[in-house]
């Protein structure tokens, strides 16, 4: 399975003079955390959609991943999330994983678990929407699926076709947070800081 990272949005909710994918979480841009975990997972190729709103992101990615044939940068118009996604559909001939660029706490183990789950149900459903229990969400959600009382995690598996798709919900308990505010950034940095301390105690 291939993956698509959506990294062409304006990121206006952060109200910072930095392109959202390049927002530094501790010591590195948050998009690098996502790419790093995807590279360690079962994902084959990683497509990253940039736009006119994220020219510095595109330049950074080209410079850093130029020698990695698994990472492919693609251009979109930057009109809106759905429009840009539809522009990327043609790159895929099989179901693919779509991720927003603002979930740096995602781990390769979870990515693999999502893929495995989808592979077991894809003869029944075309798409998979990853969600978090509302009561377990640590950040400041911008969207709540009231029908399920869950928070979308910014991770989906889609079939490469236009139009509506039959969908399954996949609930995770991991501390996934979409970084939309500085408070979200602080929470994720605290999570990462705790992980760093655990590693150094071993």
From TrEMBL:
One of its GO terms (molecular function) is nucleotidyltransferase activity. The keyword Magnesium does not apply. Signal peptide: none annotated. InterPro entries: AdoCbi-P_Guanylyltransferase, MobA-like_NTP_Trfase, Nucleotide-diphossugar_trans. Residues 3-144 form the MobA-like NTP transferase domain. Keywords: Transferase. This is MobA-like NTP transferase domain-containing protein.
